[in-house]
Structures are given as structure tokens and as C-alpha cells.
User: What shape does this take?
Amino acid sequence: MNRKGTRANVQAPDTIAAIATPFGRAGLGVIRVSGPMAPELGRLLFRPAHQNCNWQSHHLYHGDIVTVDGTTILDEVLVTLMRKPSSFTGEDVLEISCHGNPLILQTILEQLMTLGCRPARPGEFSERAFFNGRMDLSQAEALAAMISAQSAKAYQIGLAQLKGSLGRKIGELRTLLIDALAGLEAAIDFTDDVSEHETPVTPPQIHAAIYGMNLLLSTYRQARLFTEGIQAVITGKPNVGKSSLLNSLTGRKKAIVTDIPGTTRDLITETITLGGLCVHLTDTAGIRKPQDAIEKEGIDLVWEHLEQADVIVILLDGSKPLTEEDQHILKQNKNRDCKILIAVNKSDLPAAWRPDQLPDYPLSGVNLLKISAKFGDGLDTLREALTDLTGSHDMLSDGGMITQLRHKLALEKAQANLTTAQESLTTGHSPEFAAFELRCALEALDEITGQKIHDDVLHKIFSSFCIGK
Ligand SMILES: Nc1nc2c(ncn2[C@@H]2O[C@H](COP(=O)(O)OP(=O)(O)O)[C@@H](O)[C@H]2O)c(=O)[nH]1
Ligand SMILES: [Mg+2]
Assistant: This one.
């Protein structure tokens, strides 16, 4: 069942209003009103500056907003009426562009409430857009992601999804499944004619859909790096220069630098932007045999944090001979499922060892860099290496990436259904079993676009949006 229009049919919607711009003083502030009363509210509260205000849809009119009794001017504004269905929500929408003072905005909002509007819940404008078929659920989610994007790349992905890129991909997968289902249903109708030992042919669309889902799923890890940023953890024994490196990369004196070993005990995280990506950089306690309980806690935290890293920077001191502690750190991080960078620090001092003295070096996929955290040498190369783990950026061009865990889980569910369907056909079960699995896979895909989804899930998604969106 398509969700389009289902809510509107239940009862006439209220007219909602909210301030759509952030709280605080600014040049402008926008109030958004949506619902059947929007045109009337405009006529009641707006006093046009010119005679020719005939409330044409999508036209901007200049004038004043006045109080309900018409006695007091509240602000000089621009208003636009966007008539249904060609508006963001698919309803009549009134936008009032006023001066950006919370007091003005609040007073105008109060006039709207007096006339029968109610305050919009978080995400309610987007929810209405979804129910009125103005956008699918993946687009509504993309919009929220775009608004909260913290890097240029995250914004780009959100924009591509808003333009329907993910919805189109899901649509292509749906078509494959519907075609496969048609093939299977024809086979079910003719089951009586088929000899018992004849195995029904697996429709080729099932393979194609599994392949397509695999591609889409493989983008998740990468897309997450774009949207949530890269977790980079600096580790190494005490005094190799971890805190100095954090300070140099962030350009701030965030972590204490001393020549006393064991100074850093807590995790210190700073976020920087590199190449349009957010990098969450964490300085950690130096790893050695702990001298007290606090240091032990700090070191335990490091190991936990390393488990979640996307990149680990193992820092070694190039000016002093390698120690057992260095060997231990290198060994413990050797087989991690993340990118490892080995940075040999203090390149400004005479070298005490050569890279070929490192055990197991060169290791495949491990970069070795020479840096001076104190004087900045080699840091540009390190910056590049930190972000050089997002692979090909091609997928961004058509936006065929998944960024939400909800989408990933739904795709995995659909893929599992298809694999079961495939197995059941190759082991000679009735095509009815496979057809059932295909229908389940279709349902899982429809959860992504919101064509079929529980109301409580929908509510949860929209309530995480901001007010006025
Ligand atoms: N010569 C030189 N000294 C450095 C460099 N990086 C850090 N240090 C010094 O090494 C000592 C320990 O630095 P710190 O950043 O506190 O190391 P941490 O214990 O690994 O956090 C301090 O005296 C720093 O000034 C570097 O690139 N060159
Ligand atoms: Mg430190």
C-alpha cells in the first residue's frame, strides 16, 4: 500500500506554524505556516504596501504584519503564499520573512496561534511533505542529514539523496524483484505441468538484485566516513610526541606537552576539517606498564578506543632506539580492520634507527611517514594520508550511497530474503517459497522509501528532525 495521502484522508489537517530559522538575532527570521488556514491567515495579518497584492501563488509581497485587531504594526515583512500542491508540504504554505529578532518572531507566532494555528511538532512539515507524496522517506531523511551535515562531503551526499538518488536505486531494485516475481508466479501457475524432478529456473533478476544490493551496502562504511567523519586515534609509548601532534594538527594548545612521561591520561578529542571531511582526532595516554591506577584506567581506555578507530596513527620516536613498548604497540595493532599509519616523529633530531629495522616492515597497506610534530615537517603528507581512506569518490556523482543504519539493515534484510529464495529454487522447492521471500524483500525495500513502514518508526524518524523543518 502506498502511504501517499493516507493521513490527509483521515481528517482535515490542522494548520501548523513554526519559526524556521535558528533562535537568536539575525538579519532575517522566517515563520512557516502550513495547512488549510494559511491563505486566510495571510489575509488577516498582512497589510500589503501596494494595491496589487492578489496573493498569486509563489509571489513575494511587501508590507506589514499587524496584530489580530489590526491596531499595531509588528514588523515590515515579505510574505509568500505557496498554494497546494506545489509547496514543500503539499498543503497551502505561507512564509513570512521578518526581521531576525526572537521577540518579533515570537509575537507574530502568537498572533497566528490566536487565529487558530497550532505550534508544529519537530519534523512535522517534512512529515506532511512525506504523507502528501512530495518526497519519499529517504529524501526526508536526506534533508535532515543535510541540515545537520558537518562537512562538505556529507552535505553533497545529502543533496544527492534529496534529489532522489537513493529512491531511484531502490526503484531499480524493486523493478528487478517485481519482474522476478512475475516469472515465479507464472511458474507457480504451471507447476502442475512441470515434472516433479524439474528444478524451476532461478529468475536472473534475483542475481542482479543481490549484486545491486551488495554494491549499495558496500558504500555504507565509506558514506559513514563522509557523514560522521573519520575517527583517528594517535597512539604510542609515552613521550613520543602524541600530544604535540594533536596540538600541531589542530593548531590549538589543547593537550599538555611535557617531557615528563605519562602526562596525558584522558582521551582528548578535537575535530578538524581536512579535504572537506571531518576528522575526529584523539590524543591518548602513552602505552607502557602503568605506574598507578589512574594511568592504568587511561591505558585501558586507549585500547578500547583503538577498537573503534577508522585510522590509527602509531607514533614512534625516531631520535631514540626502538623499545619493547614500541614493538608491543606495533604488534597489537597489526591486524586491525582499519588503516594504520606509522609516523616516525622528531625528524628534526638525528635518526637513531632506520625504517628497515622495524619488525615486519614493509607491511602491506601501512604507510610510514617521517614527521616533526614540534616543527611541522611532514604534517601535510600526514594530513593527506589521514583522509585518504575513503576510496573512490565516484559514487558521490550519482549519490548511490547509503548513509543511514536503518537503510543498511533494511537492505541486509532484503538481501537475506533473496539469498533464501535463490537457495530454495536451486534445491528444488516449490517456487511459492521463493515468491514469498521476494515479497518480504520488496517490503524491506519499501521500508527505505517509506512506502510501507510502521507508524511508530515514522514517528521516531520525524521527531528527530528540528522544529520548523
Ligand atoms: N625535537 C622534537 N621534540 C619533540 C617533537 N615532538 C614532541 N617533542 C617533545 O617530546 C616531549 C614529549 O612530547 P609530548 O607531546 O608530551 O609526548 P606524548 O607523551 O607522546 O604526548 C616534549 O618535550 C616535546 O616538546 C618533535 O617533533 N621534535
Ligand atoms: Mg601526551
User: Anything to note?
Assistant: The pocket of guanosine-5'-diphosphate (ligand 1) is lined by residues 236, 238-244, 257-259, 263-264, 286, 345-346, 348-349, 372-374 (CB under 6 Å).
